[in-house]
Amino acid sequence: MTTTRPATSHLVPVSVAAGTRLLAWANVLAAGAASLWLCLLGDWSALGLGLAILLLSVFVLSPALLPAMFLTAPAAYYAESERRLGLAFFSGLGSVYVLATLTAWCGGLLWLAAQAASLTTRIPRLLGSLGVAFLPWQYLSWQEGGPRHEGSATDVVVMLAEIAYAIAAVLVVAVDLRPGDAVALFAAAMLPMLVPYQMVALRILRQRNGRTVVTG
């Protein structure tokens, strides 16, 4: 039996939205501390590159994510008409594309930061790379959540991705993991994130169309 019920007030759990905000502030503090650290070390090239990437990130990521936005319209149509196959197909394509873009962006920055020759410069570079990698995505997820920021699927995957990124960065410092291996580890950790991302994306599409489909 299939029934419908009104959408709930929150598109994702309140704890996820709150966790995203906390991580964003933590990333700001990490980027600030890393910038000061790099200044004291005189690592001006890393500092300048990080600031340039951060300033240009939204202008790069927004166009890069346009194909995923184009897939939202057919997915929303199929959600409204309750045609599950079309909804799953277009929503799934969008989820795969966004996840691949996130993995490529963060993996590239992890590789750059881990290239530091000495441990002295590697630690602040990796610390600062957290902010450079994830603050643009947290900004975009905030925009995606609407004026009241009811939450977005991006909130969920960005939070999980940052945990995976931090673990890879710690291993680079702790066991001298090679940059390529760190990126491979991060990419492998991103693969299973497609499941929760797609589940939340489907739930949000249905609720934003005024209904949640329940089968029982």
Question: How many β-strand stretches?
Answer: 2
Question: DSSP strand (E) fraction?
Answer: under 5%
The shape, in one word, is: elongated
Structural class: mainly alpha
Give the ordered list of helices and strands. EHHHHHHHHE
Task: Work out the count of structural domains.
Answer: 1
Question: In what order do the strands lie side by side in the largest sheet?
Answer: 1-2
Number of DSSP helices? 8
Q: Summarize model confidence as the mean pLDDT.
A: 82
Rg: 19 Å
The largest sheet, given as strand count, sense and whether it forms a barrel, is: 2 strands, antiparallel
Helix content: over 70%
Distance between the termini: 5 Å
Low-confidence stretches: 1-10, 211-216
Quick rundown:
The protein has helices at residues 14-41, 44-64, 66-80, 84-113, 119-144, 153-174, 179-190, 194-208, and strands at 2-5, 212-215. With 216 residues, it is mainly α.
Overview of this structure, please?
The protein is mainly α and 216 residues long. The protein has one domain. It contains eight helices and two strands. A two-stranded antiparallel ribbon has the order 1-2. The termini are close together.
